[in-house]
Every structure is written in structure tokens, then in C-alpha cells.
Design brief:
alpha/beta, five-stranded parallel beta sheet, Rossmann fold, 205 residues
């Protein structure tokens, strides 16, 4: 039987909006996040204008926000935030696609630049077997502020998909909504750009 894998981005694909910024405030407080944003404003603005590295700007901001943060408290915030996201900002049309893939017996994979702190609990609750996400490094009971691995965006999404396939032949469906998903969509057999459209509940095959 042919292996079929359905790989989903998260923000803007399974959700209606960005989820990272609200989590930063929920997990670390508005004052701390606001100060970190001001300190990193130049790098963030340059990256947003396409003149700098989005990955580096994000890493710098996260380093500033999460350095020495208590790991258990941030993890608990991630679990609470997962509940909030699932109840408020999910896209019903893309969730219908996910359920169709599940009913067909396809493997479900989440590949997202969102933080694993809440992305993995969400994947678990959605019954998605594997989740690749941007992960914060832990040292003992605290976060270091560094990333454990790369920001899961662009080419990193393809590397995650290749690791999941482990060299086996498969038909790959990929769902994404932004430039950060371009490489993942290009690597798929059936690529679905979901930004700005309403997906029919039953895919054309």
C-alpha cells in the first residue's frame, strides 16, 4: 500500500491568525515582552522589510524573552494556550481537510515555525502523530533563551519532512499559506496554498 503523508503548516493554515505573539505575552508578561521588542526593534524591522534574516531576528527576540525563564512555568503556559487556540482561532475548512486525510488512513504531520511549547500539545489534541516545531532549549529547570535546533521555517520544513519520510517513497500532500512554506509546498506531490481561500471539505483527487 502506498504511503501517504499530509503535512500541515500551522499559523494561517490551521489557524486564522498568528499565534506566536499572543503566546509571548501570555507566557512572559506584557512588560517584559514590550521591552524585548523595543530592544530588538531594528532587527525586527529590517527582517520584516526583507533586508535581514527573519530567523536571526526571531532568535534574538526569543533569546531576550526566554533567557532564564522557568521551564515548567512556560510549559504550563503552553498547555493553557493550546486550549485557548483550539477553542478560538482554528480554521474549520482546513481542519476538515485534516479529518479527510485521517479518514483515508494518511499520516498526519505538523511542520511549523510556531513554538513547540504549544504546537506539540495542539498536535496531540488534534491526533496528529508527529509535530516538528521551533523548540526552546532547556538547561535543567530553566530555558536558556536559545533554540534547540533551527527555526522551523523555509528549507528547515523540507528537512523535517525528509527526516519523517526516512528515504521511503510516499505521496506527500502539503498545506501552507506563506513564503515560509514555499519550499515545503514545492517538495510536495500535491501542494495546497490556503491563504485567502476557503477550502472545500472534500479534496479533489
Amino acid at each position: 500500500m502506498t504511503r501517504v503523508v499530509a503535512a500541515f503548516d500551522f499559523d494561517g493554515t490551521l489557524t486564522r491568525r498568528d499565534t506566536l505573539a499572543p503566546f509571548l505575552f501570555r507566557s512572559r508578561g506584557s512588560g517584559l515582552v514590550a521591552k524585548a521588542t523595543v530592544r530588538n526593534a531594528a532587527a525586527l524591522a529590517t527582517a520584516a522589510a526583507g533586508r535581514g534574516s527573519r530567523d536571526e531576528a526571531k532568535a534574538r527576540l526569543l533569546r531576550d524573552i526566554y533567557r532564564n525563564a522557568p521551564a515548567a512555568a512556560v510549559a504550563a503556559a503552553g498547555e493553557r494556550y493550546a486550549t485557548h487556540v483550539l477553542a478560538t482561532v482554528m480554521r474549520n475548512d482546513t481542519l476538515a481537510r485534516l479529518e479527510w486525510h485521517r479518514s483515508e488512513g494518511h499520516e498526519l504531520v505538523l511542520i511549523t515555525a510556531s513554538l513547540a511549547t504549544y504546537a506539540r500539545p495542539i498536535a496531540d489534541r488534534l491526533g496528529i502523530g508527529t509535530a516538528y516545531a521551533t523548540t526552546l532549549e532547556i538547561d535543567g529547570e530553566s530555558l536558556t533563551g536559545e533554540l534547540a535546533g533551527a527555526n522551523m521555517r523555509g528549507p528547515e520544513k523540507v528537512r523535517a519532512l525528509e527526516a519523517h519520510l526516512a528515504g521511503e517513497d510516499a505521496i506527500v500532500w502539503a498545506y501552507g499559506d506563506s513564503a515560509g512554506d514555499r519550499e515545503l509546498l514545492a517538495a510536495a506531490d500535491r501542494a495546497i496554498l490556503v491563504k485567502g481561500i476557503t477550502l472545500p471539505p472534500v479534496p479533489e483527487v
